[in-house]
Structure formats: structure tokens, C-alpha cells
Amino acid sequence: MNTLVIARLTFKEAARRKILLAALVLGIVFLIVFDLGFHLILNEMERSQYGPNILQKNEISGFLYTAGLYVVNFLTVMMTVLTSVDTLSGEIQSGTIHTLLAKPVRRWEIVGGKWLGFAGMISLYLLMMAGGITLFIYLRSDYVLSAFARNPFLAMGLIWLNALLMLSISLFGGTFLSTLANGVLVFGLFGVAFIGGWIEQIGGFFPEFNARLSATNIGILTSLLMPSEALWKRAAYEVQSPLTGALGFSPFFSSTIPSPLMIVYASLYLVVILFFAVYLFKRRDL
Amino acid sequence: MTAIETKHLRKVFGEKTAVEDLTLSVERGEVFGFLGPNGAGKTTSVKILLDLTRPTSGEGYLFGMRLSDPAARRRVGFLPEHFRFHDWLTAEEFLALHADLYGMERAQARRRTGELLELVNLAPHAQKRLRTFSKGMLQRIGLAQALLNEPELVFLDEPTSGLDPVGRRLVRDIIRDLRSRNTTVFLNSHLLSEVEITCDRVAFIKQGKVLRTSALQDLVEGELSVTIRGRGLTQEISAELNRWGSNVRLDGEHLHLTVQGEVDLPDINRYLVSQGVDVYELSPQRVSLEDLFIQIVGTDGGL
After folding, report:
1. What is the CATH number of the domain that holds B273?
2. pTM value?
3. Interface residue of A2, A10, A103 to substitute, partner B, most B CBs within 10 Å
4. CB pairs below 8 Å between A and B: how many?
């Protein structure tokens, strides 16, 4: 019950502070630009002298779809972290938390409520953004449901999982760090995972086995430290056509595909980090 | 049953001991003043009682329930010292939120919200956001928030520090009203005049330790501060006066001491005369709470 009260409060705060409005307006702008651009490019291809080539069309659709999802993934992560990074540390610092916790409220209900509130918000945002581009691509090119994309719904699910993971880490950091330090922690982890992923990617092309192995190990290590990039890579894999994968020339298409085990690991990571967030918040002097 | 019962609560932050030994017993229905200089550990003590801060050792109970039991806080109201609230809420929404957290029924919450906004004179501002409120208005809405659940125990941490005289009178009236309903009030304050007017019993705390707990009546009306002016006062004579009083201080022709009541005054006079002292003046004065505060806590004040 209290969890829902806090979740509602979190949602309301985002609305009051015009975060929801900004996200909505810019989200719509993004969708318009994406859809318009996609439409124009396909139009141009269809008009060209060679006529619509199903392979080319799919190639371009796949590329733009992945690029679109990449931006959505990035924006969702940003939105998640920027809105939640301050929520615990800020309330602790300002003292607003005192009035909340002097009520018959348990500390986990505060963490749980905030998590739920932000998770709801992020889910709506992601549904609008990823859903928007997926729907348009489907309507315009039937790429999504063709045999070329493996599983766009799983891809969206992975982006969602990634956002929830970032949210959990951000709440975790907020229980013991200041807002700024927490921001450094969360974005720092994100950055480490990002660069680790790219080292792994580029290292995949090394001719020498040992060099390839070290690069892969760096990638695996950083993924274990922070699975966000691995989740994105798996998501990208789920929307790419196998042909592009085989050619391997797009920056979005990974040479090494994170295994389903990585998804399990990320889910466990989320649960454990949320558990620690509650644990630390419970012990914290306010 | 006591409203608050603590045994040797202690809180250490790293190197610093914020609360050394908090042993208190506050009866139901009493207005309890918690006095001490800045930095004495008053706010930390309140935070421990509300389970916002966990004690390093010792134990405490609200209505016989452990401090860590949220159920205890169902019957408690709290006005924090810095009254920082979610300022993007309107006054009405703010009260509705806290009513929800108390688990109050919708209808009851609405009734209480109306009553309390009326009580703290904020009814015309019900739809305004707290961001636009002055310090005094924030304190009043905070007070309303602390009374939402018709609590049996209210913690007020420096409730009048931001208020003008009208606001202070309001707080005093509210405290009086709470007392008449047999509500326990734990008043944390260094405004001694406030405490003098409102409290039944006070505790003096310094460097995290309760130095003395006493009924205000006994403190202020029992003790007398006596000034004696006489010729022939000696150290031996003044030492002998410890029989009747405390804090005996000889200063040339002046002698100061504190006695427990008027009854001792003739004896003191007879004794002085018998020792050959020429007594020119023997004037008893009621001890003000401020004097007592200085006496008990010392002049070094907050650290």
C-alpha cells in the first residue's frame, strides 16, 4: 500500500517537474524525424531506376531500425538515470525523507515505491519510443515481421531490462552516495561497459588468437561488471537480419553475440543490486 | 504505560559521540521539554526515537513497542526541525500524501485536512504549492501534518524557531489543546520562555547526556536563588551553608547560594547572626528557567 503511495508520488513529481512533458514532446519530435527520414529514404530507393530491391530495402530498414533503437536505448538510459539519480540522495540531503519515514512506513517501501514509480514511467516512455519506430517500420516496410529480423519484441524487452538495471543501480548508489557521486558511479559504469564492448568488438577482428582472446576477456569482464552494453548488443542482434550479421559491416552489428546466459546474469544483477539498495537504505542514518 | 521509555541509548558517528546516554521516561499526557545547548544531541535523540537514526547501543520503546516497529509510528506525529517538504505539492496534496502514509481512510483524511488547514490558518492557501510558502507558513503546514492522525504522541523539534509572535502563540495554543486531549508532547527547544509556559516536565541534556530531569513546577517554584550581603563572612561560614543550599559562592561582602525553599531562610539568618555576621541584606529570588539552564548546563554552551 505504502509502496503504491510512494510510486504515485514519484510519478506525480516527474509530471509536476515537467519531466514527463519534456520527454513526451521530444519523444514525438524524435519519432517524427525518424519516421519522416525513413519514409523519404525508402521512397527514394523505390523510385530509383533499379526498382525496389527486396534485399537492399531490408538492409536499409534493418540499419535504420537498429540505429533508431540505439538512440532509444541511449535516451531511455539517460532519462532513467537523470530522473532517478537524485531521488534518494536528494531527499536524504534536503530532509524531506524525515517526514516520510516518521510515518508508519518501512524503508523498503520507499525504495520499492520509487523503483515502481520510475519503472512505470520508463516503461511508458520506452513503449512510446521503441513501439513508435517499430510500428512505423512495420507499416512502411514489413521488415519487422519478415524473416529478416529475429525477434524485435525480445529486443525491446532487453532495452527495457537495461533501463530497469540502470534504475536499480542508480537507486543503489543513492542510498549511500551524494547525487553527484552517484551520477559519476552510474555513468562511469555505463561508460566502462560501453568501451569494454567496443574493445571486444574491434578485438574480434584481430588475426592473432591471443589478442582476440584478451579483447574478448576484457569485453566479458566489463559485461560482468556492468551488463548494459551486452544487453544492447543482444538487443541489436535480435533485430538484425542474419545476412548483415554475416557481412558484419555495420557498427551496430556485433561480431560477438552475448549469450542468453548474459540476460539471466543481468536479471540476477538487477535483483541483487536492488536487494543491496534496500539493505543499505535500511541501515542508513538519516 | 509510558509514551517514551529509553534505556542508555547511545549514538556514535565515527569519532563523534552524538548521544552519550539517553535514559528517559515520558508519561502519557505530559508535555515534556527537552532542553540543551546547540549540538547537545537533541535532534539526534529525536531521530533515534523516530527510528530515522539507529542507536549504537541501548534500547527504546514508544508505547511499549520497539522503536524499529513501524506500528509505533502510527500513533506519532512529527514536525522536523528544518521542515523541508515536497514543495511541488500543494498544501492539500501534501496533507493527503501524509494521510495516505498513515493509512487513513479517504473520508477521514479529507475531514482532518480541512480541520487542520483551518486550525493553522492556511485554508485560503490550500491550493497553493508549498514552494510559494514563507518559512512560517511551512512550519504551520508541517504542524498540521504532524497532527493528521490525531496522534497520541507528538514530537516537535524547535517548532517556533521560524515563527513570528502570532505563530508562536498558535503553537502554544496547539500544545495546550493537545495536553487537554491527553496527548503527549515531546518539545525540543532552546527557547526557554516557550518551555516555561508550556511544559510539565523538562530534561536537560548536554554533550549527549541527560543531566537532570525534573517537573518544571519543582524546578522553577521550588528553588530560590539567595543573595546575602553582610560583614564578617568567611570561607568557613560559607562552607557551613552547604547544609541548607547548594552552589554557595562567596564574593567579598556578597554571598550567593541556591536553596530548595523559603523554609530554610530563617535558619540561615540565625546561623549567620550566631557566627557574628552583620547581615544587611538577605534576598531570595525565584530561579528562572534560564538561570537554571545556565546553572545545569553551564555557560560554555554549545560546542
Report:
1. 3.30.70.2470
2. 0.85
3. A103
4. 70
